[in-house]
Amino acid sequence: MTVLLEAEWVLRSVYGFSFQDVADALLAFVGLPGASVESPALLAGALVRTRNGMEFADALCLGAVVNCEEMLTFGRRFIETARGNAVRVREP
Questions:
Q1: Cα end-to-end span (Å), the chain
Q2: Which stretches does DSSP call E strand in the chain?
């Protein structure tokens, strides 16, 4: 997961790819024969949220707390993009 987080950050922030393009590329990569990832369900959900404009790291965090009712963050963009998800995301 750490390698995918780093790849996403470099593709988006250094090379200027969109959230959607990066999510598509990561999805294609993990679908290659012989590729394996930890927590495939968490990754799949995060990639869907990333395709919809959420930062990948935020999408992974949100997916990791599915059994929680609420998540606190100082990330205002995260709060905005997390609206409508099962877990409420707000400032502390």
A1: 27
A2: 70-72, 88-90
Tens-binned pLDDT, residue by residue, of the chain (92 aa) = 899 999 999 999 999 999 899 999 999 988 899 999 989 889 999 999 998 889 999 999 999 998 889 999 999 999 999 988 888 999 99
Amino acid at 72: L
Asked whether 7 and 37 are in contact (CB, 8 A), the reply is: no
Distance separating alpha carbons of residues 13 and 62, to the nearest angstrom: 21
Instruction: Show the tokens assigned to 81.
Output: 């993009």
Closest CA to 85 of 71, 23, 76: 71
